[in-house]
Write a structure and sequence with these properties.
This protein is an alpha/beta fold and 240 residues long. The protein contains eight helices and ten strands. It has a seven-stranded parallel beta sheet, sandwiched between helices. It catalyses: 6-phospho-D-glucono-1,5-lactone + H2O = 6-phospho-D-gluconate + H(+). GO terms for molecular function: 6-phosphogluconolactonase activity.
Length: 240
């Protein structure tokens, strides 16, 4: 359990062990989706890639949700084919969609379409869809979330965008690994989400989050773009 973490800018929930963390996050997401299905008849959620949330998606798919009333898309994506094993679309398909029968998936990358057209389509899709009920976010050790990488040449433009999605070139940013070209949610897109969840594991990630809150520098810690938004506070689910 964390020994020192406190902030009135986030809702922080610590879990004692990994299995409890997985079950709690999945249950939280299901509750949010079911509430919007009850109110609006449908719900929409945005998922992130990475190994941390995969077991949560597996558990979520087994819960009692009318998946045929749920639209699924991504918080961000590498400039890769949705069939590429390194794409976020592939991870979501393997960990969630194959188990959640009936859920509709809108990838961010469209095969055969150039990057600007994919971004245009993602923004058009967001414009004519329900506001996302929930977005599941991760955070890198560099303080990035979605594909908002500190030091990237397009970061300021993405932070100032009035559209939900933007293209971003993270060439030279270690956290982007060998996939610098990205499509990412912007702060404008994050603001539209009814509930923002941050899924964290390990003491190092908790320290990064604390440093971000102490710094108030969104250029150095883009995770702040998910924190400093109107509406419900970012809900952080953490386990060691």
């Amino acid at each position: 359990m964390p020994t020192a973490f406190s902030s009135d800018r986030v809702e922080f929930i610590a879990h004692r062990e990994a299995d409890g963390w997985i079950e709690a996050v999945a249950a939280d997401m299901a509750k949010i989706l079911n509430a919007d299905i009850a109110e609006h008849g449908r719900a929409r959620m945005l998922l992130s890639g990475g190994t941390t949330p995969a077991p949560v998606y597996q558990a979520l798919a087994e819960l009692d949700v009318h998946w045929d009333r749920v639209e699924v898309s991504l918080a961000d994506e590498r400039w890769l084919s949705p069939q590429d094993r390194d794409s976020n679309a592939h991870l979501v398909r393997e960990s969630f969609l194959q188990r959640a029968e009936g859920a509709h998936f809108d990838p961010l990358v469209r095969i055969g379409k150039p990057l600007p057209e994919c971004v245009y389509t993602a923004n058009l899709q967001a414009q004519y869809s329900l506001p996302p009920s929930v977005v599941a976010l991760g955070m890198g050790n560099d303080g990035h979330t979605c594909s908002l990488f500190p030091g990237s040449r397009d970061l300021q433009r993405a932070l100032e965008s009035t559209l939900p999605y933007a293209a971003l070139d993270a060439t030279g940013c270690p956290g982007s690994n060998q996939w610098p070209l990205r499509i990412t949610l912007t702060p404008h897109g994050l603001r539209a989400c009814r509930q923002r969840l941050l899924l964290l594991r390990g003491k190092q990630k908790l320290e990064v989050l604390q440093h971000a809150l102490d710094s108030n520098d969104v250029q150095q810690y883009p995770i702040l773009a998910a924190i400093d938004q109107p509406g419900p506070r970012l809900r952080v689910h953490w386990a060691d």
